[in-house]
Backbone:
């Protein structure tokens, strides 16, 4: 298929601010896609060349792209820089200079989607000496073959500023509709496969090549991160036992969640967000090689930095310093990690995700040999709320975050948050029971002291799974240092869009809208009801709002769709009421 057809679709997607329309446009388009191009098209729609865990970047700075545009339009780089200053978008610059130069193109030269994709891949894979020049030559070559409108999207793609805002759920809905004529018919199967490999391009290709049966037989694969199972919340030990009965109760370590994939001596480590982090943890890799007695395995655990001087764990603030690009070996010596493993998803060729928790963790204990780095999470098995409560209190005293109770017969449900796992954390009576993860959808220009930063507050939203949209819940103006305000503004400006993004539902008008990408953990005093915000709002009901929200830390290792959901806010609101009632003696 010609790339011009995809560019036309992008043009239509860009013009709409309605998610439903995006879905219609994409599902019509996916009907025409061939199996050979399905994965490439899905990646391009996701604004990437490969799933993030492959760690591939195009590696072209603006100046390089400016040079390519200059070459292809026979203008000087200075002319292009000038025009860029005026238009503020190199995609528009490319469109303008090429439209003047060649209003029409010879059809025979027009590249297919695969050709464009392969060239972009080649650019990304060009590294080492002379790579800057070679990348520019490749991009120039590509731009000579496309129309002005296509060039706009190629340039934006190369710079990571396509900002179409198509979410994965929209792509999944559209694939199901395109193949079966029904949005929901294959939705669960597509999502299941996606959760097992974090690669929607691959899922699309399997679907088109092998049909529904192939999709249903999809299995986990070593090397492709599995989307992690998540925990629900309940406010007390009694409620946990009432809900799931006899269960395993594990320490909830406050560290970094890691998923380790082992194939012989080849080891990969992925983050909570399916990013590849292998190079950051040489100590864990050594530990896995020494201690894990299995040819192949996928296991999960929480990594915590350990202070060898005191024999105690470091707080999270220290553990997080292990997430770094440089001086890795030094930091590994100063703050070695211990990985508390708590699940085994695959071993020696067998997918264990459908096996019950008890069986998986027994196998886990069997394959882990003695040593410092790799251990299994501490746990008790109980059906007695008092015992659970005691284990929880002991854990709080030791400075851990609390406990996670796990249903003994539950499978590992990739990507799902349900009552198979229930977390109970330290709580402050009367206050909100947990922090909230909000996604930033816009910001307000600063007044008063912050005016000089050009940013004074952020507009925060939570995720509504039902409608695949982001609904506002708070304006946040505290918790960041001055430098961080400047930094976040720069980052948000890179995601700036001219109108409210299609998947954002807001009645408040931000001064600057941006595509939802960055997730922050926010502490608040309580959840209140408010007519201003759209989270949980309906004709009959006011929305939810956060009282005194303040940011904790910095950008989280989460996708926008991993932010707290409206459903969770509703539950937290109810839990808050229950605690209030108890505190007041109700
Ligand atoms: P979530 O990961 O559920 O979206 P979050 O990142 O805000 O939420 P928490 O709500 O604090 O984290 O709790 C869940 C996290 O606890 C897990 O993702 C994992 O990183 C961590 N954890 C620590 N110990 C365990 C354990 N024994 N079993 C499962 N998870 C654990």
Residues:
């Amino acid at each position: 298929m010609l790339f011009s057809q995809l560019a036309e679709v992008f043009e239509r997607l860009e013009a709409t601010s309605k998610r439903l329309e995006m879905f219609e446009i994409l599902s019509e388009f996916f009907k025409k896609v061939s199996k050979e191009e399905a994965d490439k098209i899905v990646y391009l729609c996701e604004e990437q060349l490969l799933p993030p865990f492959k760690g591939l970047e195009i590696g072209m700075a603006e100046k390089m792209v400016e040079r390519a545009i200059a070459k292809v339009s026979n203008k000087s780089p200075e002319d292009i820089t000038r025009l860029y200053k005026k238009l503020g978008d190199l995609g528009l610059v490319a469109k303008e200079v090429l439209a003047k130069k060649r209003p029409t193109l010879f059809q025979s030269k027009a590249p297919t989607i695969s050709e464009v994709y392969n060239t972009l891949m080649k650019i990304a894979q060009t590294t080492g000496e002379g790579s800057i020049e070679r990348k520019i030559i490749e991009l120039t070559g590509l731009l000579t073959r496309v129309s002005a409108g296509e060039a706009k999207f190629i340039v934006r793609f190369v710079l990571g500023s396509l900002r179409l805002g198509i979410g994965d759920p929209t792509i999944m809905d559209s694939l199901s509709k395109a193949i079966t004529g029904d949005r929901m018919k294959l939705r669960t199967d597509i999502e299941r496969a996606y959760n097992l490999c974090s690669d929607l391009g691959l899922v699309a290709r399997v679907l088109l090549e092998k049909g529904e049966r192939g999709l249903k037989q999809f299995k986990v694969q070593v090397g492709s991160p599995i989307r992690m199972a998540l925990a629900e919340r309940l406010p007390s030990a009694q409620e946990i036992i009432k809900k799931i009965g006899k269960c395993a109760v594990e320490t909830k370590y406050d560290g970094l969640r890691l998923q380790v994939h082992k194939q012989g001596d080849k080891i990969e480590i992925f983050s909570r967000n399916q990013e590849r982090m292998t190079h950051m943890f040489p100590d864990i890799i050594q530990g896995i090689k020494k201690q894990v007695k299995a040819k192949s395995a996928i296991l999960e655990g929480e990594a915590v930095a350990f202070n060898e001087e005191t024999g105690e764990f470091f707080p999270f603030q220290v553990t997080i310093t292990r997430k770094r690009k440089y001086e890795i070996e030094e930091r590994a010596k100063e703050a070695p990690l211990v990985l508390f493993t708590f699940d085994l998803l695959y071993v020696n060729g067998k997918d264990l995700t459908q096996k019950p928790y008890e069986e998986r963790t027994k196998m886990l204990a069997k394959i882990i040999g003695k040593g410092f780095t790799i251990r299994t999470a501490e746990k008790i098995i109980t059906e007695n709320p008092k015992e659970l409560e005691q284990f929880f209190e002991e854990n709080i005293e030791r400075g851990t975050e609390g406990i996670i109770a796990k249903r003994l017969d539950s499978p590992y449900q990739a990507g799902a948050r349900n009552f198979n796992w229930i977390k109970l954390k330290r709580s402050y009576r009367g206050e909100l029971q947990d922090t909230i993860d909000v996604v930033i959808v816009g910001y307000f220009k600063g007044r008063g002291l912050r005016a000089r930063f050009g940013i004074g507050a952020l507009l925060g939203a939570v995720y509504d799974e039902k409608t695949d949209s982001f609904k506002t819940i708070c304006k946040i103006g505290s918790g960041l240092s001055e430098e961080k305000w400047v930094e976040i503004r720069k980052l948000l400006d890179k995601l700036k869009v001219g109108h409210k993004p299609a998947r954002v539902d807001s009645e408040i008008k931000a001064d600057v809208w941006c595509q939802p990408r960055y997730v922050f953990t926010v502490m608040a005093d309580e959840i209140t009801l408010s007519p201003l915000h759209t989270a949980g709002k309906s004709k009959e009901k006011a929305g939810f709002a956060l009282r005194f929200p303040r940011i904790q830390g910095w950008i989280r290792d989460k996708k926008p769709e991993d932010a707290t959901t409206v459903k969770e806010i509703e539950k937290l609101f109810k839990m808050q009421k229950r605690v209030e009632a108890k505190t007041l003696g109700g």
In short: Residues 230-231, 250, 252-253, 257, 272, 302, 342, 377, 404, 423, 437 surround adenosine-5'-triphosphate (CB under 6 Å). Residues 49 and 108 are 25 Å apart (CA to CA).
